[in-house]
What does this fold into?
Amino acid sequence: MRLVVIGGVAAGMSAAARARRLDPALEITVLEMGETVSYGACGLPYFIEGRVPDWRSLIVYTAEQFREQRNIDVRTRAEVTGVSHARRSVRLRSGEEIRYDKLVLATGARQDRTAIAGLDQPHVFSMNTIPEAMLLREYLRTARPDHAIVIGASYLGVEAVEALRAHGWRVSVVHGGKHLLKRDDAFLTDLLTRHLSRFHVEVRPGVCVRTIEPDSVAGVHASLVVLAAGLKPNTALAEEAGVELGSTGAVRTNERMETNLASVYAAGDCAESIHLITGRPSWIPLGTTANKMGRVAGANAAGRRARFAGVVDTSIVRVCGLGVGLTGLSETRARREGFHPVVTRIEGLDRARYFRGRPTTVELVADRSSGRLLGGAVLGDTGVEGRINVIATAITRRMDVEEFGQLDLAYAPPFAPVWDPLLIAAQQLIKLLGSSV
Amino acid sequence: MRLVVIGGVAAGMSAAARARRLDPALEITVLEMGETVSYGACGLPYFIEGRVPDWRSLIVYTAEQFREQRNIDVRTRAEVTGVSHARRSVRLRSGEEIRYDKLVLATGARQDRTAIAGLDQPHVFSMNTIPEAMLLREYLRTARPDHAIVIGASYLGVEAVEALRAHGWRVSVVHGGKHLLKRDDAFLTDLLTRHLSRFHVEVRPGVCVRTIEPDSVAGVHASLVVLAAGLKPNTALAEEAGVELGSTGAVRTNERMETNLASVYAAGDCAESIHLITGRPSWIPLGTTANKMGRVAGANAAGRRARFAGVVDTSIVRVCGLGVGLTGLSETRARREGFHPVVTRIEGLDRARYFRGRPTTVELVADRSSGRLLGGAVLGDTGVEGRINVIATAITRRMDVEEFGQLDLAYAPPFAPVWDPLLIAAQQLIKLLGSSV
It folds into this structure.
């Protein structure tokens, strides 16, 4: 019995490792087109920034470790050019064919480079892979800081801003949408835009870049351009093999990470997951989700019955020193999904005032008729990850605002104020819900 | 209609403020025996340590503010010596009688000083009130650092250790029990005892102090003694008025904070609350709980129908730099409560390794038959409050370990590792539960 995994980063290596743990007899082959497997792609912005001096510290396990310690046949520079499910085999660029009994597609995401002209100029960079990050870092080390433009305002875009600022560059962000961080939340976008401008980072929404000129983008001078937009699920091989895609453009899977083809699984950034609040498929490419999906795909490929529960779309990012945590639905999105949202935004303290307490903003969204919590945002100095995770846990279990407002949260002056901002926000929301009945 | 509140700290002032907000016409009188109301008693250790230079910064609102801005008749140095519920009146030490229609008992906790002889010596201190804390701080400022003994190993005891060490004193902790932090968890006690010994703090369990000698306690030299044990609910007035106590020794209330007497409520450290996991009354004197109970009592006294959901016994404390968060039941306690607990303890990282990730220990307890999470502990450098709050939220909603292990928690290198220690612990626990079936 042979398991073949296409893709050796988060989802792929999680799948292979899990399958090995559950079935020591399985033959497992991982095919990775790049030179390294199992690296923390989320750490690349910090490598570019310089905080992570050596890219090797982003490697969790090497291909050799997988081969020697786990008996997993990991092949790097092994580009798969085709999948024939009828013959149960994959074809490598070298011409070699490898047969499989079970197949895990973990081909990740790719950047769409067709929509913009001029991407191949020497001052234009991406930061999706280690080689790309190395090129950018080398450029930053040798070029004189001037004006950089980041195309895209999602997480990657914001992380690129941080990395470039650390090198002394003036940075502008241009993006085609209205909102930052892929969240249709005008309050959040306003607050972050103002915060960024305090750090001399200009944000230009609604700019659809078609061409990168040698010294400008959309009329703004730029001696460095970082492309942080256009991420798409990498589904070319899947499609060729006859694997169905979902409405999001990513591979459609069930909760066992099974595709429409028998014995073929998909996991990670190439696959959809179920959004636990809307109940509908979503495409949310994130490292944590990829790892969880990979584990489930690997377990099922090894003959177990594991399921992936789904996501509530939790994320966190640092924006010029400010922690920004998001989960669930924004007010606008909740309305679009058929809820009747009520929203509140409050400012509290992250710790006791006499313990260097700093302002923390909490946004909570609930459904008017049921009182059910639908989403939230937390912005602050410390404790952002903890507070957004509490909201994520509550919405996963369909908690209503009443119960949320009475949560028995930890309190001591070095860690929190006696009224946690989460509870203050809940009280405010209960008042709004009450008066609306 | 007049509401009288006995006690003007957390629960009492929360009750008064809430009642005022809901009923502008209510006559509200707060009777506080001390000189200040509405102070952050939890900040006293940090005042003693010196981090909070001025005790006035612990005051949230002054009596004047309550009088002028909220029309609440707050009287300090107003000691209530008796309650006659038949006549609906309280009697002050001054002889004055005040009639009430509704009464909130928020008399707090008191330290039992009858069990130990020698407490009135000049080198023996408590730290429950602002005057007590001021006396201790004055002593620390003038006395030569030598050896201090803290009696008691609950939160207050540990916080006293931190405060004394900051002044250069060598500290020993003696306590009558087996475990630290009131948690019957040998693993936790061991780990903390070893941690404290690294900071030259000696812990002597099983020592029942009966007498404090002029220069020693239980045979150990001491030129300073801090009493941080013997906290009891302060129920003398309640009992005299005919209010029933519960099995914990604190005032028995229902979820509306009503006592057995009509129109008499109790809230805060003098009252019981329902433990959401055992379903039984518990006495857990904590500032956050006191505030929540006070709000509910105040709302009901003002004619609304509010309820207090109960507690899961969440707490957090810093022990020589180590954050220690606890919630729910320990393994031992779970067994005593009739569960069949399975426990796991893992060490993970609080953040990505390349982002100064530091070790974090997570303990999770679940019920073998249902898989339901029952409790947990988190010990670490950063993120302790957030992780313990996620466990608290999960156990409040009776989450099982399977669902917990798939929580969509926030990830970015500055905030968390890609596999959060909570999820690693859950995976470990799932394995243990699985193999036991």
Q: What stands out?
A: Chain B has three domains: 2-39+55-109+232-301, 124-227, 315-436.
